[in-house]
Amino acid sequence: MTDGTALLVGGSSEIGIAVLTELLGPPPRRVVLAGRPSGELWWNAEKLRDLGYSVTTAQYDACLRADEVDGMLEHACADHPLSLAVVAVGTMTEESFADGIVVNGLSVALLLRALVQRGPEQIVLLSSAAAVRPRQSIAAYSLGKQLADSTAVLLARQAAESGVRILVVRPGFVATRMTAGQSKPPLATTPDRVARRVAGAVRSGQTIVWAPRTMGLAVRILNLLPRRMLPAAWR
Ligand SMILES: NC(=O)c1ccc[n+]([C@@H]2O[C@H](COP(=O)([O-])OP(=O)(O)OC[C@H]3O[C@@H](n4cnc5c(N)ncnc54)[C@H](OP(=O)(O)O)[C@@H]3O)[C@@H](O)[C@H]2O)c1
């Protein structure tokens, strides 16, 4: 990968920063963390600066219009073209059903289109096993992830012709602040393990990767079982 700008959208995300750090390569390199201002975003920027990267932050909110997203990207990549983008935006604590679909789905779909147009070498989307195995208890999240995931899969085919690779990452349960307080199910994993799976998938040019590896098989089996046979949380 070249040393153009590396961008993390969802700059405060625990999985996002683990993935970005694993993919960055040695410093120096220009890194942009885009997100809503927060202590976590600031902390992630400081950690990368301590490692020797040149880090700036940019404002990204899921409620931005498409032209505002373009403006943010234009500004973020003004001096160095974009070579790597990691999209880690997601929420399970949305204010409403519609908000869950917009934040996890529609806004991410529009962002992915805008990113492809900038011609980076690699885009990584943090999707979810819930995109393939939607659950009633997280319906808006699941539906939003389905939209984002499908958009990335469709774009991956077109974008490959212009040299842009897209990797769709489908983790199951990952121990982060998003899942804090929930009991760990089987196949639970960590941000660092997800990051290593992503790095391996990027190296081998994959389009879809599950984390952990066995999650893909588990989801296929779960989808064959009648939902009424499963515990409520798995339906
Ligand atoms: N943890 C899991 O078990 C798990 C499993 C599968 C997939 N994933 C996906 O992995 C990604 C990273 O999750 P994580 O576990 O690292 O959780 P996280 O630390 O909570 O990261 C979520 C990111 O989304 C951002 N975000 C949420 N709502 C937003 C909004 N309205 N506008 C702009 N940004 C918004 C958050 O920014 P703020 O700090 O401003 O809220 C944060 O940067 C997400 O896409 C998530 O869906 C997570």
Question: If you had to describe this structure to a student in words, what would you say it looks like?
Answer:
By secondary structure, this protein is α/β, with parallel strands linked by helices. The chain has a single domain (5-234), classed as Rossmann fold, CATH 3.40.50. Helix content is 43%, strand content 17%. It contains seven helices and seven strands. Strands 3-2-1-4-5-6-7 form a seven-stranded parallel beta sheet, with helices on both faces. It binds NADP nicotinamide-adenine-dinucleotide phosphate. NADP nicotinamide-adenine-dinucleotide phosphate is lined by residues 10, 12-16, 35-36, 38, 40, 60-62, 88-91, 103, 126, 128, 171, 173-174, 176-179.
